[in-house]
């Protein structure tokens, strides 16, 4: 059974940093691209970042470029999102998601809530 | 960037009704479109991929159609467990994934 379990969310002050993790199991993690998608309270889904299967290629939404870094450790079956210079507008539930094939996202984690507030 | 315009933003229908949601892309995306269901407090769940293919295990009352810029998602007979928000998502313009604004479906 495919499982994606996010962790690392919490309350952080504006300008602060946080690192999210996503532990994957039930599939060959190193074979799949992965994404982070976020959802602000009461709002829709917004793509944040993507990483290819071996970690050599990454992409970011303009809203997080230069502040967030996506990475992965295929030996640990874990995806990361390092978030720096956090702003109030980054407050959201962050989901990790598996890319089955070139943008076809088939499995999502349950999400972790990040709240940026003083 | 490709924009996805989803309508309506919400709807109320009776159990057994046919429900239709539309999604329009700002440019041709071929059939690179998925539909997701999200229940309150839960992660999105893939229902339809490549515009019209039913994901394994998804009830056959759900269906999708369309290509190019105009797409339709249909629930043939609304059930109480279908109460959720539904999102379309394009994946023609990688690496970015673009979602529609969502349609909240409620029971009348």
Please give a structural write-up.
The complex is a heterodimer of chains A (118) and B (108). Chain A has 118 residues and is mainly beta. Chain A contains no helices and 11 strands. Chain A has strands at 3-7, 10-12, 18-25, 33-39, 45-51, 58-60, 68-73, 78-83, 92-101, 104-108, 112-116. The radius of gyration of chain A is 13 Å and the shape is globular. The mean pLDDT of chain A is 97. Chain B has 108 residues and is an all-beta fold. In chain B, 0% of the residues lie in helices and 50% in strands. In chain B, the strands form 2 sheets. In chain B, strands 2, 4, 5, 6, 9, 10 and 11 form a 7-stranded mixed β-sheet that branches. In chain B, strands 1-3-8-7 form a 4-stranded antiparallel β-sheet, with no helix packed on it. Chain B has no helices and 11 strands. The A-B interface holds A 35, 37, 44-47, 50, 59, 61, 95, 102-111 and B 32, 34, 36, 38, 42-46, 49-50, 55, 87, 89, 91-92, 94-102.
Mean pLDDT of chain A: 97
Oligomer: heterodimer
Quote the beta fraction of chain A: over 45%
Percent in helix of chain A: under 10%
Our Rg estimate of chain B from Cα atoms comes to 13 Å
Number of helices of chain A: 0
> Can you write the helix and strand succession of chain B as a string?
EEEEEEEEEEE
What can be said about the biggest beta sheet of chain A? 7 strands, mixed
Shape of chain A: globular
